[in-house]
Structures are given as structure tokens and as C-alpha cells.
Design brief:
Blueprint: H1 5-12, H2 14-21, H3 24-31, H4 36-63, H5 67-71, H6 73-95, H7 100-104, H8 110-125, H9 128-151, H10 159-167, H11 170-185, H12 196-216
Helix pairs in contact: 2-12, 4-6, 4-8, 4-12, 6-11, 8-12, 9-11, 9-12
Length: 224
Amino acid sequence: MTQTLSNVIRTEHAAAWERVVAHPLVLALGDGTLPIDKFRTYFVQDYIFVKDLVAMMGLAIAKSPDLASASAPINRFLEGVLNPENDLFVRALRQLDATEDELTAAVASPATQGFVDFLTRVGHEGTFDEIVTVLYVTEGTYLDWATRLIEAGRVPENPFYKEWIDLHGPEALGDIVAWLGGYLDAIPAERRSDRTDWLARTALSYELMFWEQAYTGVGLEWPN
């Protein structure tokens, strides 16, 4: 019996997936021990990343095979990103001792630049199925780590950390990840992209580098 595509991705890349969702930065976020400067670094780079993620989703809508695939789940997700998450970005400035000008003028690190360039390439050159594959990995890993923290009862004292976890939990990402996985699973075996393995592996690698740059500083600075 042919495995569903979402199961193939989760099974064949289980080790890489686990390194992402159980990264030390995630665990420290959950127990409230993450130094604010490390979260600040992550947060600024995530602000840059989200802008390109939104652009990729716009391309997904343009390439969708039918109206239902685009207008319902992806559009609802975009509305969530462009409203509450942006509001959280603005409110976070006070908590992180940053200014809006500083945030909007932030430069992508080498790791972030590589990640957004990958998203841009997939968005422009990839098929709708390939875009969905990458989105399943990026949103699925975030849903996974947030769900684990919530189910483990992790309630950090910093209310901002708790809100960040909730923002990526089942209530926020559950529907879109379920739809992405369901769409992948409905793709007939003969129509599966021969780039699926590369897309999943690359997305997971960039996700790991994204955590690492904030937690260890590796990949954060451009050479002089």
C-alpha cells in the first residue's frame, strides 16, 4: 500500500523534523529560561522571514488548481498572519526594547537570506503541489513544537513567550496544517514531484539553521 505523502515526509525526515521541533531554543522558550536577547534575535529575523512567507502564499493562490484550494484555507491563514501576528510584532517592540524603524530596517542574516531565497525560488518556479510541500514543513514543524509545549503544560512566566507559543498552537495553525497535509495525501502517487525529498530536506535544514542562528549565533553575521 502506497504511503500518504505527508507520512512519507514525516517518516523519511523524522530525525531532521525532531531536531527542529525539539531544538534547545524551543525548549527554553517553553520553560521560560530563554534569554530575552536570544528571543529578540529570533524575533527580528522572523519578522523578515514572514514577509517572504506571505509572498510565497500569494504565489500559491495564483497557482492553485481551483478556487477552493486558494480562497478558503490559504486565504484564512494569510488573514491570520496579516492581522494578529502583525499586531504582535508591533506590541513586541516595547517588550524587546526595539523601535519600529529598527525592525523594518533589519537586514536578513545569511541563514535567513538563504531561507527566504529558497521560498522565493519555490514560489516562482515550483508547482502548487511543491509550494504546499514546503508550507507543510514550515507550518507543520511550528504547529508540532507549539502543540508539544502546550500539551506538556509549559506556561512560561513571560506572558509574551506564552502568547508566542499559543500563536503557533492548534487553534492558530491546526486548520491550515491539516488542510496542507490532506492536500498532499490526495496527490496520486504518479503525480508526486520528484523534488519532494529535496524540498522537505531543504526546508527542514533551513528551519534548523533559523533556530541555531538565534540560539548560538552561527549563521547570524555576514563576513566582513
